[in-house]
Amino acid sequence: MDPPGLRIGPLIPEQDYERLEDCDPEGSQHSPLHGEEQQPLLHVPEGLRGSWHHIQNLDSFFTKIYSYHQRNGFACILLEDVFQLGQFVFIVTFTTFLLRCVDYNILFANQPNNRTRPGLLHSKVTLSDAILPSAQCAQRIRSSPLLVFLLILAAAFWLFQLLRSVCNLFSYWDIQVFYREALHIPPEELSSVPWAEVQSRLLALQRSGGLCVQPRPLTELDVHHRILRYTNYQVALANKGLLPARCALPWGGSAAFLSRGLAFNVDLLLFRGPFSLFRGGWELPDAYKRSDQRGALAARWRRTVLLLAAVNLALSPLVLAWQVLHAFYSHVELLRREPGALGARRWSRLARLQLRHFNELPHELCARLARAYRPAAAFLRAAAPPAPLLALLARQLVFFAGALFAALLVLTVYDEDVLAVEHVLTAMTVLGVTATVARSFIPEEQCQGRSPQLLLQAALAHMHYLPEEPGPAGRVSAYRQMARLLQYRAVSLLEELLSPLLTPMFLLFWFRPRALEIVDFFHHFTVDVAGVGDICSFALMDVKRHGHPQWLSAGQTEASLSQRAEDGKTELSLMRFSLVHPQWRPPGHSSKFLGHLRGRVQQDAASWGATSVRSPPTPGVLSDSSSPLPEAFLANLLVHPLLPPRDLSPTAPCPAAATASLLASISRIAQDPSCVSPGGTGGQKLAQLPELASAEMSLHAIYLHQVPWLLQPQEIRRGGVEGHAKPSLEAPHGLWAQGCFSWAGLGG
Known about the structure:
Layout: E1 18-20, H1 58-70, H2 74-100, H3 104-107, H4 127-130, H5 134-142, H6 145-181, H7 195-209, H8 220-227, H9 229-239, E2 245-248, E3 254-257, H10 260-272, H11 294-337, E4 345-347, H12 349-354, H13 362-382, H14 388-414, H15 424-439, H16 452-463, H17 474-485, E5 486-488, H18 489-511, H19 515-524, E6 526-529, E7 533-536, H20 543-546, H21 569-580, H22 588-611, H23 629-638, H24 655-671, H25 682-711, H26 714-717, E8 720-721, E9 724-725
Parallel strand pairs: 1-6
Antiparallel strand pairs: 2-3, 4-5, 6-7, 8-9
Helix pairs in contact: 1-6, 2-6, 8-9, 10-18, 11-18, 11-19, 13-16, 14-15, 16-25, 21-25, 22-24, 23-25, 24-25
């Protein structure tokens, strides 16, 4: 049985595959392109023809342009590839050296050293004494057929990686020439040019010289569709519950699993493998576009999954050995230096998939999650279920381990020969690690007085999705789901180590039984956009096709239950993309939704101004140029209580109105950049505008989570639409049902 989080539902052919003649707001009609003609060619103006030729694969071209910028130019890409190849050689050769070229009996002083002179009983053993001669080392390597076979495999894999790196370097060299001659960005200035400027110059080049033979002008959305063609599908698969893989736990509930190895296999199965759906191209095969082929395609896909699972199972010992060696060489020094490093939290691969917007580039996602880390981690510390017995045991363990460690430390200070005693250094290391691990189970005093609701609210400002359910169990559910998103580093490391063993199991028992659902997913949620190719229909961010009435899309959407994007992903993705790219014009229904949302914001802002006792902060707080704009804005506007205690009454204005007032203020600032920093220069004002868009998106995320619960019909409040239960990660949530409250501490 599928877990409760699975939201794909029965995919009845309600929205069949279709071609879109155009997706621009003017709706100009152009005939769709087919076959090879569907992929527009890239041609360069006359001045660049000596260095460039026609490019067939614009997906690869735009992706390399973005990757070149994010990897900081050709020199960094070259060094990164060289270091990766060198790291592989080092791990293989050093491991082989440790296995076959060291005499551990001499190293551990289990037998006398041949080079030690008689009578010198206390002579020290040097490293050169324990290392075998090269001839003897080579003979020991040749005497192990298994080791020789593994070394041959490693050499073949390294040569393959070398060939691929060389090919990529040639293409990146061409990209460097394109940056310098077409975009006029020399390598030494690349680090100071943001991606938005690169994209703007790319579009300007297309408008001036006809960069792409397209039936319509190239837009920012077209560039994102090509760079994120497969990523948007993965985000949609996660939104509909097909990713990540899940398994039931013996004590109840389920666990999500999406390691790097499993993600690589999913990519092979769906997008880039020799038997995948897309096969690394931009067009879905015609068989997936016809509903009469779904059964045969699902059967063939099951066989492909079975074959891939068998290959993973056969290679699992080698991959497991590599994972263990890589983790050992990477983390042992870190553990010696910072024993508590494995107890730190970081965003999981699941979080980077579930919290990602459609058409959100990797650097935009990383920046947003970095801003959300501190309040999210503080929420986990403050909302952790009380465990007084565990905390008491941890305190005692810390005391005894610390006492023993202190005694050994004093002895070593008194006489350093104590370190020569067998296992003393090992005991000190184990005691230090034990005390550090036990200390992580002791709750921090500074987190006990902080409100988990406000911390979760502060994290929402940047996460844009709120993991909480209504009802009494909402707090526990929010903690568990946030812990999945922001997991311990030790848990992440354990998942990667177990990935070679678990990946074949999840391929067989999660993906193979869902072959028909995955085929149906690509059949129903793929559209052919003229000049772009086949893309995920969710990536169009069309509220008419995939909107949800719970997120102010009522009257604008015609999506059925199985077509709706959960968690407000269509609406939030549309809002984010329109704020980041103000020159982009969304299509009709999406534009109407944005207008409707702005109208609701103005209406609620006027309601706040008419009924509130206290006016919201004015844009004048931004005139302080001593602090960075985004942090200063969120701090100045959100950390101060907008609702004093005397206003906490049933007749007081609700949080949605307060948020709307702030949104109205920042919208006026964004439309009139001159009021951002009166003393700043024009360059500073332009640099501040992306930060304004980030702050405005944070407020829109809060507002869209507040409005549904307070303003939608009563049947939606009860947790369902059209008689269906509300998914576990779907807003609105119980946090907003508690009425009006102070906004103190929202800035995180």
